[in-house]
Every structure is written in C-alpha cells, then in structure tokens.
Amino acid sequence: MTHNNIVIFDTTLRDGEQSPGCSMNLEEKLKMAHLLDEMGVDVIEAGFPIASRGDYEAVEAISKILKNATVAGLSRATQKDIEATAAAIQSAQKRRIHTFISTSPLHMKYKLQMEPARVLEAIAESVSFARGLTDDVEWSAEDGSRTEDDFLCRCVETAIKAGATTINIPDTVGYAMPEDYAAKFIMLRERVPNIDRAILSVHCHNDLGLAVANSLAGVRAGARQIECTINGIGERAGNAALEEVVMAMRTRPDAMPYQNNIKTEMIMKASRTLSSITAFAVQPNKAIVGANAFAHESGIHQDGMLKHKGTYEIMTPESVGVTESNLVLGKHSGRNALKTKLKEMGYDLDDSTFDDAFRRFKDLADKKKEIFEEDLIVLIEGASHANEAIQFQSLVIQAGTKGPQIASIELMVDGDRKYAMSEGNGPVDAIFKAIRMIVPHDNAVLKLYQVHAVTGGTDAQAEVTVKIEEDGKTVVGQGSDTDTLVASGRAYIHAVNKLLDKRKRSLPPLNSMLI
Ligand code: KIV
Ligand code: ZN
User: Fold this and answer.
1) Could you give the domains of the chain?
2) Ligand found nearest the CA of 104
C-alpha cells in the first residue's frame, strides 16, 4: 500500500444497522455485504457477534461469502466478546477483530465506572488476547475526540505495543470541529513513539452535520482509514457517508490527493439497495445519492448546463452510477434483449432466476408499454417471493365515493387456497384487514405505508413499502405493480411472510449460550 492509499472501512452492517429503523435480516445483510465487496470496500464490519445470535450468524455467513474485503467483527474489551468475534469470522479469507473501550473522562467515570489505570490494563489485555487469535486487530478509543491528550497518547501506545495494527479515534458523539479533530491526529503522530506501526483511522458521527468534514480533516492530518456507511446511516444523526467521502476525494484530488479502491459507478446501486431493504428513505437533496443531486431546475442553471456542463456540475451523474431514464425495452423484447440489458446494468443472473425475471418482465410489459431501467431494477431487486409461505393470488376492490370500500383477496397459505373479504377505511385498509383475517397477527402494528412511483407517467409501476412491528421487532415488506392497490397487497404479504419467518427464528441470544 502506498502512503496515500485510503482504506475504506464500511460499517453499514454494524454501526448503521444498529440504528433505529435500519435493521436487516440475514438475507438482506448478505445482499449488502456482497454488493460492498463487489464495490471495492476494503473492510466490511459485518456486526457485533456477542450482541445477539442474529448478529453472530450474520457475521459468520458474511465471512464465508466475501471475495476481496476483510471482514471485521466488533467486540468490547472482554475475552468473551473477542472469542465470539474470532469464532464468527474464522472462515473468512481476511479477518479482523475490532475491539474498543471508552477513554474519555465522562465515559470512564459514568459508563464504565473504571479508573484510567484499569482502562489501560484492559486495553493491553484485550488487544493482546485478540492478537493471539488474528494478525489484524483494530483498537478504538470510544469517545476518543473528547479524550485528554496525555491519556489518549498512553492508550494508543499501549494498544500498539499489545499488537493493534489499526488505531481508530472515533468522534463518537459528533462533537468535534474539523480543526480540533485534525489536531488530535497530528498530536498523536508527534507524541506516540510507536505510532508508525499502526494505521490511523477516522470514525465520525454526524450530530453537528460535520461527519464528512471531520473525516476528511482527519485524513489530511495523517489518518489512512475512513470508517463510514452507505447513505450515512448510523446512530442518531448517522455516520460519515461513504459516497460523500469517496466522491470528495475523487472530485477534489487537488485538495485530497488520495486513492481508494471504490468503484464509484456502483454508489447509486448500493444506496438504492440499502434504502429499499431498510425502507429508510434518502432525503431528496442528500449529496451524491439524493434524487435532486443532479437535477437542474432553474432556467439560469439549465441554460448554463446547455452551454457547458461544468457550469453547474462538479461531477458527472455517470461517475456515481446515475443514468438517464432511457427507454430500454418493450412488449416485443425477447429473452436475449433482456439478458443483454441486465448484464449491462450489472445483473448476471443464474438460469432459474433469469427465467423468473423474464416471466415477470413479460407480465409487466403487457401492462406497461415502455420499460425503463428503473422498472428493471425494481423487477430484479423485488424478490420473486416464490418460496414464501403466503402467496398473493388475486384481488378485487370496490372503492370510490359511493358505498363502503371492500377488498376481496385470494391467497395461497402453505399450499392451501384461502379467501377473505373485508371493509375498511379506504381500499388499502380493507386489503390489509382482509389479509389479517387469513393470517392473524393481532399484536403487530403498521408503522409505515409508503408509495413511490418508479418512473413518470400514469402507467408507472408503484413501489409500495410497508413496515410492521411485533414485540419490538420490525420487518419491511415491498411490492410493486402498475396497480397501486395490488402493489400494496403484495408489500403487506411480503412483510407478513418476514414476520412469520422472524417468529420461527427468534432464538435465545448468544450471550445466554456462552454463559
Ligand atoms: O462511535 C463509536 O465510537 C463506535 C465505536 C464502537 C467504534 O462506533
Ligand atoms: Zn460509531
């Protein structure tokens, strides 16, 4: 690695996933991990193995599929945590144990209730224990940006002496100003005698909207790893957004002359996949991946853009994978045309997945004359649901201003055909009630119902997202169709299938197995 290479450490599946509204199931985490690996992320923090059985299993499964990236698992400074991480990542080709402890006066006194001397001992013990299990060990000073300089120097020196190969200084509560954060790295590089034996890392939260600015300031001050998440998801106001730090380096090499391995053309795909999995919408004016990030609405701007793109565009939409809504296929397109187009878009499907996609493409083309790239993304990303216990069959709706709104639905439940009819406050309510009559889930509460038009036009596909919560556990379902009500029924059924799956899998936490 040359001196100016930046390690991109993605923690979407750990710091991102642990924030409210962003939880993912195993299949979804695997899908994201696969994408991040393909995109060129160097280190994927896959979870916190001791936290729950689900986390452990996800880290274990992700460890088996990564082709290029190093897998990392988080652990507190205890042997039990570190052993759980080591076990979960053991089958990975490249693995890292990430262990942390708080070092600020406030955290040591109130959270840990530990004296600084004991914290130093815990750092030496935990890092050397981890180093006995793997060669790649990252140590983090939680609340590092609010830690006193003298003590931080002693902690970092101790961690490196015990074998840490990466030293991370998080701005855990998003409190730092860019100059102060940079000064911490300069100070550490000047004062810690063995500092050259480790890579320094930034990890910034966005409570004051400074996560990206602080991360870049840390890099200019000598850090060579950035910890970040797709769409900036994470605790509270989130973490530094991967797409923003990466595009800042790519767009401003004069100010940020550093390299990284990210294939930026995959950024939009990663952003969309994550927001569709979690139903965590991206704000329209979000940098790089927001719907308006490359839109030019005002007359003056449009005029400037026509004369020279550089007038109002500092990076091209193509460089982050935004393509124009090109008409791509239609009713008469055959298997070959679909296969070629999907390949161009980066989807290389096996035969049976392709057959299923082709069948659904034909159904869609019967209802919608023009098929755009966005339609194909929804078609492919929306699982076929073929193996799910509850299958949508048909829907008849009575709606409008006269008389009650009534839904009659037909489902297959474990192979048996079932029918229900319900009135409701509007057709969507009637559909959901009818589904509840067939598959009771009285304790579940609907938390979100969201409709998004995939393209323009009145024949556009509607993509519906629903989120339901039962006993503190949340699931997200999605459905798409040119008929918004059919899409709503499909989305709700998708969520109920996931709920049933979650009930089946709700096993005791890993902690209780280890004790
Ligand atoms: O924000 C933080 O301090 C963290 C550490 C556990 C790395 O996420
Ligand atoms: Zn964090």
Assistant:
1) 7-278 (3.20.20.70), 325-379 (no CATH), 390-505 (3.30.160.270)
2) 1
